[in-house]
Amino acid sequence: MSKGQDKFLQATTLSGLLQSCRGKRTTIELRNEAYVTGKVVDVDGFMNVKLEAATMLDPAGNTINFDNFYVQNKLVRYVQIPENIDIKQALIQLTEPSAGRGRGRGRGGGPVSKMRQKLLDKRESRRQEDIRNALKMKEKEEKNKASAAQAAPQK
Q1: How many CB atoms are closer than 10 A to CB 36?
Q2: Which residue would you say has higher pLDDT here, 91 or 102?
Q3: Judging by DSSP bridges, how do beta strands 63-71 and 76-80 pair with one another?
Q4: Residues facing 27 on adjacent strands
Q5: pLDDT value at residue 101
Q6: What is the pLDDT of residues 93-131, one digit of tens each?
Q7: Are 64 and 58 in contact (CB under 8 A)?
Q8: Which pLDDT does position 35 carry in this prediction?
Q9: Cβ neighbours of residue 110 closer than 8 Å, sequence gap 6 or more
């Protein structure tokens, strides 16, 4: 799956809410009645979850520890969102349009570097100077026309 598809799925499904659990410990109930508790490392748009320092409690009551644990999307029954996560705020962040490039190959949209800003400032000062020079030239031309018009009737 491409990054674009993944971002779209995360923005349009509740798998994006699970992104707010990244870096926090949570419990996932699996469809086979097992529970896995661990620190969420990564979640993709299909709700595949990678956990770190995970503990699995199987249906028989046995616990198994894992350094890394991968939960495939079709095995997830429930995900317990930790209490310290504000679900409303997470959903707002999920639905906000992201800043940056839109369609096409992108021109602008991001912050301007200091070097680029210097170039833009220099260009703007030259443009202002050109405008002043053009106005001076126009004034001189108008004076020349006026003096020529005054000199012409005297002949």
Answers
A1: 23
A2: 91
A3: unpaired
A4: 37, 80
A5: 54
A6: 877 766 555 555 556 567 888 898 999 999 999 999 999
A7: yes
A8: 95
A9: 100, 101
Alpha helices in 70-113 (DSSP H): 87-95
If one counts every other C-beta atom within 10 angstroms of the C-beta of residue 30, the result is 18
Identity at 54, one-letter amino acid code: A
**Tokens, residue 16:** 């994006």
Residues 36 and 78 sit within 8 Å (Cβ to Cβ): no
Residue with tokens 């996932």: 28
Q: Map residue 54 onto helix, strand or coil.
A: strand
Cβ-contact 18, 44 below 8 angstroms:
no
Q: Which residues contact 93 (CB under 8 A, 6 or more apart)?
A: 20
pLDDT score of 61 more than 80: yes
Region of 47 (left: φ > 0; alpha: ψ -120 to 50; beta: rest) is: left
With tokens 């990054």, the residue in question is 3
